[in-house]
Amino acid sequence: MELFGTVATSNIIPWFGGVVDALTGLPRRIEYCHRRFDSFFEMLIEEHLEPTKQKSEQDVIDVMLSLSNDEKAQFNPTKEHIKAVLMDIVLGGVGTSTITITWAMTELIRNPRVMKKVQAEIRSYIGTVKTAQQDASLHQGEVHFVNQISSQLQGDKDIDQTAAMAMIEVMPHYDQVLYSMQVRAQDFIGTKPYVDESELENLQYLKMVLKETFRLHPPLALLIPLESISHFKIGGYDINPKTRIMINVYAIGRDPDTWKNPNEFYPERFEDNVIDFRGQNFELLPFGSGRRMCPGINMASTVVMVTLANLLYRFDWKLPNGMKREDVSVEEGIGLTIYKKLPLYLVPVIHDFEKTLDQ
Ligand code: HEM
């Protein structure tokens, strides 16, 4: 990431710049990184070509490999193409998502009020379920069936094979049955072990925390440079064709004309506010906008939210001994992305759910 953000002098002064780059060791560092990535991707592809490998479902490498041998396909990707796509995924997807999670945890540990509120939301939501009676799409007979299985699960009796098969069949469809299973499983694991994707839409405050993190810490401070095709006017300025356009989303997110107390981490600012990060509101553009906006937006927002929800659900977070929250650095490292310069050290403590219930 640091290398990607480094400007090669040879791009600015063609011949002499090459000498300067050689003296700083830039080509050698690029070559070293390239070799390491290349051998890693080579290993992944070889693993996927292994005929004995058991596959439960196809991943992106399997799909590309099958396309490369498909005579009917419009395009047959070569190994080099596959490596280039993997590089896009690693650079575009992995760094940006981990940077966002790190900034969110940094802001939360610096703001205990927000940390407490978001944890309370996640912990209070998980476990509230829709019952069969509330599900208007069920017939009377189905309600009865779901209720029967549910009460059998909550009882002490052993479950026979037919009942077990019926439960497996209906379990994914009815939260009530799932809940009963969880209640029964609590003897072993304490409470529901994790937050899954289906629960995210109910975690509204967590979503506000994510928006606020993107506002203050968009991983790409400057969007990928664009070039204008035709003449247009913006804010009274003439923009000629072939002008390079850089959009500073970092500055947009901290603009005092748009945001009150812009440097404060205050997720509630999104409470009665329709601004979202999906490219429709120019006040918040962590994924860009328009045709070239990030194609990974859905995957990224889901992965980041599920990871954060689980970190916050099962653990309480403490600072290492002797460290105060004011000591947590927000210094930024600058490369292709804006990352947290100093590592974030936190101590996870498994949350005691029984204590919460007693309170
Ligand atoms: C928090 C996570 C992420 C953020 C903040 C982010 C942000 C961005 C931004 C700002 C752009 C440039 C858009 C523009 O200039 O208008 C971009 C492009 C891109 N992103 Fe993401 N991204 C994230 C995750 C991902 C993931 C998970 C993937 C793929 C798995 C991905 C793949 C790409 C690709 C391939 C492009 C280039 C698109 C093009 O040029 O047409 N990104 N991303």
CATH topology of the largest domain: Cytochrome p450
Alpha-beta classification: mainly alpha
What small molecules does the structure contain? Answer: protoporphyrin IX containing FE
Q: Could you state the oligomeric state of the chains shown?
A: single chain
Strand order of the largest sheet: 1-4
Find the count of extended strands (DSSP E, 2+ residues).
8
Helix % is 40-55%
Overall body shape: globular
The CATH homologous superfamily of the largest domain is termed: Cytochrome P450
Number of domains: 3
Number of helices: 12
Please tell me the overall pLDDT: 85
Measure the end-to-end span. Answer: 46 Å
The major β-sheet equals:
2 strands, antiparallel
| Pattern of helices and strands | HHHHHHHHHEEEEHHEEEEH
The radius of gyration computed from the alpha-carbon positions, rounded to a whole number of angstroms, is: 26 Å
Low-confidence stretches: 127-132, 184-190
Q: Any idea of the CATH class of the largest domain?
A: Mainly Alpha
CATH architecture grouping of the largest domain: Orthogonal Bundle
Descriptors for this entry?
about 350 residues, mainly alpha, Cytochrome p450, 3 domains, two-stranded antiparallel ribbon, two-stranded antiparallel sheet, 12 helices, 8 strands, globular, binds protoporphyrin IX containing FE, heme binding
